[in-house]
Amino acid sequence: MSDRPLHVLFLCTGNSARSILGEAILNHDGKGRFKAYSAGSNPTGQVNPWAINTLTTLGYPADGYSSKNWSEFAHGPEFDFIFTVCDSAAAESCPVWPGRPTSAHWGIPDPAAVVASDAEKAAAFLDAFRMLKRRIDLMLALPIADFEQVALREKLQTIGHEADTL
111 near 17, Cβ under 8 Å? Predict the structure, then answer.
C-alpha cells in the first residue's frame, strides 16, 4: 500500500441509498486515509432524499453525491477495495477494475425498498447507516498494511457477515 489515500468503491444496483451512505461515511470517518466513491449497475439517477436526510441528521456532509453507473470508473481510479452492499449487485457480473482491488460483500437491507410511514422510512435508513458505520469502523481499525491480500479479503468478508453480531 502506498502513502496515497486508499480508493474504495461501494457498489449497489441503484446507487441511491446504501452505496451513497457508505461513500459518505468512509470519506468522513476515514479522515483522508481513504477516498470513497459509489456507483451502481443500474443507477436510479438520483440520490434518495432519505439518504441525504440521514446524513444531514447525523452530522455527515450531504452535498455532492450523485447516482451514477459503474462504467464511469472502468478506467480509474485504481481501486484498492470494492464493496458490494446489496445482494443483487453482488450477484452481477462486474466490470474488470483497474489494478487488483480487494473485494468483499457487505449486504445491507435496502432502506429505499421500505414502503411505510415517514418514521419507518427514517428508521430503515438509520439502520442501514448504523450497519455500514459499524463495518467501516471495523475496517478502519484494521492494520491494513500488515495483511496479505487474501487474508485481508477474508477479514473484510468476515466483517460483512459478522459485524452486526460483534
Answer: yes
Per-residue pLDDT tens digits for 12-63:
999 999 999 999 999 999 999 999 999 999 999 999 999 999 999 999 999 9
C-alpha cell at 136: 467501516
